[in-house]
Amino acid sequence: MGAFGLLLYLRNKMKKIQGNKQQLPPSPQSLPIIGHLHHFVSSGKEPHQLFQSLAAVHGPIFSLRLGYMNVVVVSDRSTAKQVLKTNDLALASRPKLISVKHALYNFQDVVFSDYTKELREIRKFLAMELLSAKKLDMFTNVKEDELSWLVLTLANASEQLNTFKMRDYLVGLTYNVITRMLMGKRYYGAPPDDKEYEEGVAFKKVVDDAIKIGVAGSIADFFPQLEFLDWKVSQAKKVQRELDKFLQRMLDEHRVPNRGNSQEDFLDMILEASFMSDDRIKATESMTLLHLQDLITGGTDSSSSFLEWTLAELIMHPQVLAKAQEEIDTVVGHGRKVKESDIPRMPYLQAVIKEGFRLHSPVPLLVPHYANQECSINGYTIPCNTTVFVNTYAMGRDPKVWDNPLEFDPERFLSGPHKEVEVLGQNVNFELLPFGSGRRSCPGSALGNSIVHFTLATLLHCYDWKAGDKIDFAESSGAAKIMKFPLCVQPTPRLQIQDMYVTNQYTNPIHM
């Protein structure tokens, strides 16, 4: 009787929702109670792929009902512009996802909080004090150190192994760059007998678990009444407690006077800001932990997975790889390392990165937006409390915008209508949106963009690349776009690696 009563309650609730008819975007046929959730099971596709297929039938804007969640999906640059610019303020909030609630202090983090005055102040602090170009320049040496470690580690691996998975090395690079910048910690490459090795292994596991929970979602997101039945909720709480303990330990270490760290890191800057006399930001302890958590989970796997996809494309297109290497050789030569200051003189490399983002945006549906007030897109009503997805996967493959959209062709960005396209969310025509745009664009976009450019330039400068196994472009399940089958590579040095990089202090191989 209890189960029957719950089903009856849900059915009546759905009728109330359906009874409030407005001029909504077109929608596929739905089922009672579950709405359109069955499409995700029957199609066998990832959400962004399913949404692309539905857009081909219903147009660039359509609506869905996923249990209790009302959803609108936009799939071309015109509708994306209306979400991210025209109706930017009305759609500046985030949906209250149960899985996120228990992982991020009840929606108090930068990524998933409502668009409040406090959030605006925090984003201003991040943009001006933490992630500004001037502050990021202070950490150029960190990126240089870790790229030197990567180059030497790859040289050792290529001597000992015929082929190996590139993902482990790219993850090691991005984790080390992010953790050194954030809290002065370096975990990848530490030998097993090092005191920080065990800490690093535990840290990586809890971050990986947090990311998996965040991208997997929860049945309670669609049916909040079923929260008590969803095992992912308890898992999210457990992972959050573990991550809290780790970050709290970092916080305590940074509060020790004269702790002997040679370089100020982001956590030092956050703690300094929390004690400032003006009201720009008053960071509580939990908010400080949230800053760290957002930067760690948002900046590690996204950069490494994008680099893996792009390197796979280059190996599959050797003529593009050769052109990129020729440009790098012209700018840098063979007698020194690539410098980050060289990147602006490498338009072809920048075009390769843009083409990588077009086809392999790290988060194909971006972080969802949420209507805090009613608005209109393409003449359709978007009711308050609607979740809105921007499908950058479909936008990057739109044949109305891109010639031969499924081909990897960086030269499309060197001339013609796409020459002025950029990737940091300032697009006039909204062609590329890997970091979103507008009020809720990714605050770490400049950091992520610098990491992928500097890393790819260094890898192409130092090595020739071949596949170690057949490359499969299948995607793994989840909100983040990751290769289902890790890329196996056979790099061959094209420089005197040991001579050029011998001064680097980090030479230990990966042990994680």
How would you characterize this protein structure?
Belongs to the cytochrome P450 family. Its cofactor is heme. Heme binds at residue 442. The chain is of the alpha+beta class. It has one domain (117-501): Cytochrome P450 (Cytochrome p450, Orthogonal Bundle). The chain is built from 19 helices and nine strands. The strands form three sheets. It has a four-stranded mixed β-sheet. Strands 3-9-8 form a three-stranded antiparallel β-sheet. The longest helix is centred in the middle third of the chain and has 24 residues, at 231-254. It is globular. It starts with a helix and ends in an 11-residue tail after the last helix. Residues 277-281 have low confidence and may be disordered.
Number of domains: 1
Summed up, the helix count is 19
Structural class: alpha+beta
The average pLDDT value, as a whole number, equals 87
Into which percentage range does the β-strand content fall? 5-15%
Radius of gyration: 23 Å
CATH fold category name: Cytochrome p450
Give the SSE string.
HHHEEHHHHHEHHHHHHHHEEEEHHEEH
Largest sheet: 4 strands, mixed
Keywords: Heme, Iron, Metal-binding, Monooxygenase, Oxidoreductase
Binding site for heme: 442
Pfam family, one: p450
Family: Belongs to the cytochrome P450 family.
